[in-house]
Specification:
This protein is an alpha+beta fold and 160 residues long. It is built from four helices and five strands, in the order E-E-E-H-H-H-E-E-H.
């Protein structure tokens, strides 16, 4: 059934099942779906002397159209997520260029004596977020002073 169809017209039709049995059912004239249970033959013939055959092509077209609508919606959702991701990356890039971020970094480096918190061997040159939950307003304890090599290990998925 399509999301918008309320089956406004559902005449009785004759459907042949895969085992060859004949059923009388109501088929929505709009979406092609079977509406309700099978109808007794006597009741079907009392309502309509010679019911038309089940329109499998209508049902197939409507189901294909519904699949296409769902695919289109998934594509639009994915594009929306991609746009939102690009916008967040731009905002984050602007933030990392800000005086506020540079001061946060300086405070983290001073706190750790400019030593990498991961290897405790190299000079810390970068600041790593433990979480992005408080991005743009992160407390200093969520930020770690690290060297470039250790930071790359913390973000293996990124091109650095």
């Amino acid at each position: 059934m399509t999301a918008a169809c309320l089956h406004p017209a559902s005449p009785i039709v004759v459907r042949t099942c895969s085992n060859g049995a004949v059923q009388y059912v109501r088929q929505c004239a709009t979406c092609g779906e079977v509406v309700g249970q099978a109808v007794k033959k006597a009741d079907a013939l009392a309502e309509r002397a010679n019911p038309p055959p089940f329109d499998a092509a209508l049902l197939a077209r409507q189901r294909q159209a519904e699949r296409q609508r769902q695919d289109d919606q998934r594509q639009a959702d994915a594009e929306g997520r991609e746009l939102a991701t690009q916008q967040r990356r731009e905002e984050y890039g602007q933030y990392r260029a800000s005086v506020h971020w540079k001061e946060r970094c300086r405070l983290v480096f001073v706190r750790e004596g400019w030593l990498c918190e991961a290897c405790r061997q190299a000079r810390a040159t970068e600041v790593h977020h433990q979480t992005y939950e408080h991005i743009f307003h992160e407390p200093l304890w969520e930020l770690r002073a690290v060297c470039r090599v250790c930071h790359a290990r913390l973000h293996p998925e990124e091109d650095r």
